[in-house]
Structure prediction request, 227 residues.
Amino acid sequence: MLLKIPQVLDAAGLARARELLAAASWVDGRTTAGSQAAQVKNNQQLPPGGEAHRELQALVLQALDKHPVFFSATLPKRVLPPLFNRYAGSANTYGNHVDQAVRYLPGGLQRVRTDISCTLFFSDPDSYDGGDLVIEHSYGEQRVKLAAGDIVVYPGTSVHRVEPVTRGERLASFFWIESMVRADEQRRLLYEMDMSLMKLRGKLGETPELVQLTGTYHNLLRMWADT
Ligand code: NI
Prediction:
């Protein structure tokens, strides 16, 4: 499931993130790529470990934490700490690749399966040319270039690329999630059911049928979740 979620980061969070990113010193993005991906990757990243990096990570994670749609769509079990990248100038593109299936949490002891890839946009789409995130899936290609503060989540299994940025700069956060529900099609069913339940509850209030269906949602989650 590819899902765009608007305004995950509010105006204050966005302003602070841009401030930190503007003052940051960037390094070659190939340091975190696997060997296939490194051959097509040409962008910049923020090196982890600094104070600004920690503040940015906290900012992103807090925004996600209080977002019910993001939670419902991803059902997170483990979230890898967000990373930050910049496409501009001569380091402006990332060719077709699939993200590594397994990554490590900082410290290297805990493995995380990358069920879901996430990109949170910081730059206004009008401020740069190119830089579309192009995701291939069974129905063809999907081009994604979102408003600042919006996030896209998509299956980690997808071949994807970031097209060259030919004007301005594209700043984003990217990270991966291991979901409690491993299979994309099961996550989609749960997400669609959860959203419909929310809308029905808004229209009808609590009814016996809604109580029953909410129970069905939780029982499906119980059947499929690995916590
Ligand atoms: Ni990628």
Observations:
- The pocket of nickel (II) ion is lined by residues 97, 99, 160 (CB under 6 Å).
- The radius of gyration is 18 Å.
- The chain has two domains: 3-179, 184-224.
